[in-house]
Structure formats: C-alpha cells, structure tokens
C-alpha cells in the first residue's frame, strides 16, 4: 500500500517530546505505508522555516501561502509570487476564507484569496482552499477568478453534499481529514460517500484533528492511514483501492511525476 498525506503542517509537530526530528516523523509514517507528504505553509516566514526544517527530500513537497487567519498584517504579494515559484512548491496556500474566527479581516482575506488564485493561474499551480462560515463567498471567488485554469482542492472538507457538488463542478478535488471519523459527522460522511473516487484526497491536517481512535493526541502523517481505512469502508472498497485512487489523484492534481512516486515505493 502507498498512502499520501495530502495536507500536513510538519513545522507544527512536537519535536520536543514526541519526535526527534522530521526523519522520525516520516519514518513513523512509512511504517504505516504513508510514504509521501505535502507540507503546507500558513505564512511566508513559516514557509521559509519549514523549508529549512524539512530540507529537500524525495518524499515531501511544499505549498506556499498565507492562511486566512493570518491576515492581521499585510504581506508582500510579490514575495509570495517568487517563493511560490521555487522548486518543489506544488501548490498555493493554504488560502481561502474564514469568517468564523476573524470576520473583521473579511476584506483582506478576500483580497489575499484572489491573489493566491491569480498567482496559481500564472504558475499553473493549484490552490489549497480553507473555508469556514464563508461558503457563498468562497464559491463566488473561485468562479470569478477562473480557478478552473489552475485547479485546486477544498482541504479538510466539512461542508455538505450540495457544496461538494458545486466544487466538483469547478473541477475541484475534495480532501477529507480525521473529522470524518468523528461521531457527530454524519452529514460529512454523506458527502464523503457522494464524492467520486477520482476526485478524493485524504489528509491529516496534522498536528490538528487526530482521527478516531487517536482523539486528543497530536495528529501526525502516520494517522492518515486511519482516515483512509475509514473512507474505504464508507466507499465500499478495500483500503488498498482507496490508497491507490487517492495517490493517483494527488499526483494528477499537483503534477507529481509518477516516476518520483514509484521510486519511493
């Protein structure tokens, strides 16, 4: 089996008491057949720190972006453009809209979201989108900014079947995290059954949102296997089939050469 954690924050893990270093994290993941990761940035300084922390590896690629919750201060859009063009940066983000925590930065969030999509279109790199309490505006900006030119994924999906359908109509992929395993997530499980297998990704969003049976612990890339196994049951297929499909989808969306993945197997 070959699994990909399509969204993790490697710079956010506990290297003081739980892991010796990034090598340790990736080794624990590999034991559970999680052999490739997308390390996602949430600020530009954070992106630089993560590149320094992780280094250049065959089994890790990066995104570059500024999270909607990090819009309290302005950032240099041209710097974002230059960093996003670096080697092994395969996506823009994490970007999007979050009106739940910081509605007061709504306008700045929207401007930043648009910048990310525009750079993604110019660089032919997909966008990784976060949305919370901003469904209508998120969909409107994706349409208006012609996101189909670069593609993208709605990560850590927590919306309903109808929203999933609208995203699929835009050519989007949809990524499910450990939330799908939570007891009160029946609406999310309904959406997971609905999303076609060829548009599905799995992720941890580590260090957050550890899946059942690890609730309350730090999430880490190794735990994407728990998400994948749970999703396989929902889809009525084997874990191996789910792993193969989501790995193929990941490679297609983020333009990862098949030879790179096969060399790791």
UniProtKB/TrEMBL annotation:
What does the entry list as the binding residues for a divalent metal cation 1? 7, 9, 94, 205
UniProt-listed CDD domains: TatD_DNAse
Question: Which Gene Ontology terms of cellular component type are present?
Answer: cytosol
Identify the keywords attached in UniProt to this record, alphabetized.
Hydrolase, Metal-binding
One GO term in the molecular function aspect is:
metal ion binding
What are the binding positions for a divalent metal cation 2 in this chain? 130, 155
Give the top-rank taxon of the lineage listed in the UniProt record for this protein: Bacteria
Q: Which InterPro entries does this one have? A: DNase_TatD-rel_CS, Metal_Hydrolase, TatD-like, TatD/YcfH-like
Sequence similarity: Belongs to the metallo-dependent hydrolases superfamily. TatD-type hydrolase family.
Q: What is this protein called?
A: Metal-dependent hydrolase
Species this protein is from: Salmonella houtenae
The organism's lineage is: Bacteria, Pseudomonadati, Pseudomonadota, Gammaproteobacteria, Enterobacterales
């Amino acid at each position: 089996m070959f699994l990909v954690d399509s969204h993790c924050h490697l710079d956010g893990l506990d290297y003081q008491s739980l892991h010796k270093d990034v090598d340790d994290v990736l080794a624990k993941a590999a034991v559970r057949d999680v052999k490739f990761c997308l390390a996602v940035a949430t600020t530009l300084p954070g992106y630089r720190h993560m590149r320094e922390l992780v280094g250049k590896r065959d089994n890790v690629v990066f995104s570059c972006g500024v999270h909607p919750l990090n819009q309290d201060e302005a950032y240099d859009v041209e710097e974002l453009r230059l960093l996003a063009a670096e080697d092994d940066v395969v996506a823009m983000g994490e970007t999007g809209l979050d009106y739940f925590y910081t509605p007061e930065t709504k306008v700045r969030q929207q401007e930043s979201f648009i910048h990310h999509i525009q750079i993604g279109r110019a660089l032919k790199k997909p966008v990784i989108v976060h949305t919370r309490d901003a469904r209508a505006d998120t969909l409107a900006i994706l349409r208006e900014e012609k996101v189909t030119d670069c593609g993208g994924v709605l990560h850590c999906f927590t919306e309903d079947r109808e929203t999933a359908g609208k995203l699929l109509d835009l050519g989007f992929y949809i990524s499910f995290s450990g939330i799908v395993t939570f007891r009160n997530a029946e609406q999310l499980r309904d959406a997971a059954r609905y999303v076609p297998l060829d548009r599905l990704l799995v992720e941890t969003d580590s260090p957050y949102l550890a899946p059942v049976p690890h609730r309350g612990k730090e999430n880490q890339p190794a735990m994407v296997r728990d998400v994948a196994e749970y999703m396989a049951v929902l889809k009525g297929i084997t874990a191996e089939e789910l792993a193969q499909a989501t790995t193929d989808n990941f490679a297609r969306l983020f333009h990862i050469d098949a030879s790179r993945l096969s060399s790791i197997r």
